[in-house]
Specification:
By secondary structure, the chain is mainly β. It is about 0% helix and about 50% strand. The chain is built from no helices and eleven strands. Strands 2, 4, 5, 6, 9, 10 and 11 form a seven-stranded mixed beta sheet that branches. Strands 1-3-8-7 form a four-stranded antiparallel beta sheet, with no helix packed on it. The radius of gyration is 13 Å and the shape is globular. The N and C termini lie far apart (about 40 Å).
């Protein structure tokens, strides 16, 4: 069973940065693509970024392209989401998830973390 735990969320001012981490316990992330998703109040869950199991392919939603970067460190069994130039509309609960397949569609993912809150506000 793959358990994922997100960390690194918090309150940040517009234009600021945060780095989210997604760590795995009880198993390894080596064979999984990892996606980052977010759910803002009143909105559907959105796939914002994903990285394949080798770490040589990434994909981003247009809304975050050029501002967010997903990376992985398999030695630490951790995937990161570096978020720069944050905007109020980035406010959401952010989740990481694991899949045997690469992509940002929610239904590709079998294992989900509990989420971490990101709030962008003055």
């Amino acid at each position: 069973q793959l358990r994922l735990v997100e960390s690194g969320g918090g309150l940040v001012q517009p234009g600021g940065s945060l780095r989210l981490s997604c760590a795995a316990s009880e198993s390894t992330l080596d064979n999984y693509a990892i996606g980052w998703f977010r759910r803002a109040p009143g909105k559907a869950r959105e796939g914002v970024a994903c990285i394949n199991h080798l770490g040589d392919m990434t994909n981003y939603a247009d809304s975050v392209k050029g501002r967010f970067t997903v990376s992985r460190d398999d030695a630490k069994n951790t995937v990161y989401l570096q978020m720069n130039s944050l905007k109020p509309e980035d406010t959401a609960v952010y989740y990481c998830a694991a899949s045997r397949f690469f992509g940002r569609a929610v239904n590709l993912y079998d294992y989900w973390g509990q989420g971490t809150q990101v709030t962008v506000s003055l």
